[in-house]
Amino acid sequence: MVWQQKVRRMGVYVILIGWSLFIGIPIYWLAITAFKQSRDFNGGPTFIPWVDFQPTLDSFYSVFVRQGELSRQPFLNSIIVSLVTATIATMIGSAGGYALARFPFHIGPFRNSHIAFAFLIQRMFPPAVLLIPFLLLYRTLNLLDTLHGLILAYCAFNIPFVVWIMCDFFRSLPIEIEESAQIDGCSRWGVLIRIAIPLAAPGFVTAFLLVAITSWNEYLFALTFAFTHAVTVPLILSDTGTRSMAVIALSSLVPVIVAGLALERYIRRGLTFGAVK
After folding, report:
1. Which of 101, 212, 234, 260 sits most deeply, having the most CB atoms within 10 A of its CB?
2. Which of 136, 158, 159, 137 minimizes the C-alpha distance to 216?
3. What is the DSSP string of 66-130?
4. Are 132 and 213 contacting, i.e. CB atoms less than 8 angstroms apart?
5. Taking Cα atoms as reference points, which of 162, 150, 157 lies closest to residue 127?
6. 3-state class of 25 per DSSP?
7. Residues 125-174: tens digit of each pLDDT
8. d(CA 162, CA 179)
């Protein structure tokens, strides 16, 4: 039995190391490409900084200083769209998730479980099917190439996802705590603000970060609805050279990695409590 446990543990380590290499090697290649000079990039393959090539910030200077507004504005647009979308979707979706978790609904033959499953089905709906209806609607309402147009579209697709996440999360919280607060005279709004929301903080953070990352990386809607003023980072990635692409891609990874590391404790608690199955 001991040797079987050692073999099993060794197999787990091999899988983890292999997966780490599978994820880490492309990121490493992206990073060293962003810091290479033109002669290093156009020459033969180089892999080790300060050994095979001398790192430089010329590519970053070219992208963010020489190109100026053409490169900085898409990052600002992505930040605004991601944060606003995540905030709105988390607030509205959490309210819907709490209602499904705590109140019984009867809509014909449908109950709470059916409604929650309907929200989950929405995530399986291909966004490309709605591009033409959205395009016609946005043209009529003058929402094309606007940040609030992108925010509206992203919220429409992310709110059901947040409802499903937070409904499952609120169900995992003990309802006896809320009932005890109501017995002590706390109103329903008081229970929500003083009890449910603080206990659900890990779920809020998890939902917020997932929606923000989804909005940050979204390409199809941005390609369809944004042309000049509302261009986001994924769009400029598809229309730039290799060195500039490496700089922009590496820079776009930094906010996501920093947010993930800073909020790791809340995300881990949110996943552990069943926020995502």
Report:
1. 212
2. 158
3. ISTHHHHHHHHHHHHHHHHHHHHHHHHHHHHHHHHHHS---BTTB-HHHHHHHHHHHHTS-GGGG
4. no
5. 157
6. helix
7. 788 888 888 989 999 999 999 999 999 999 998 998 899 888 888 888 88
8. 25
d(CA 270, CA 257): 18
Cα 6 to chain centroid, rounded: 37
The b-or-e profile of 89-99 (16+ CB within 10 A means b, else e) is bbeebbebbbb
Contact 35, 49 (CB under 8 A): yes
Q: For residue 129, give both structure tokens.
A: 């099917």
- Which tokens is 107 given? 């809509």
CA separation for the pair 226, 221 (Å, rounded): 8
Topology, domain 67-272: MetI-like fold (1.10.3720)
Q: How far apart are the first and last CA of the chain?
A: 32
As given in the structure block, the two tokens for residue 61 are: 């200077």
Domain chopping of the chain, boundaries: 1-56, 67-272
Q: Copy the structure tokens of residue 67.
A: 């190109």
Write the pLDDT tens digit of every residue in 18-28: 988 898 888 88
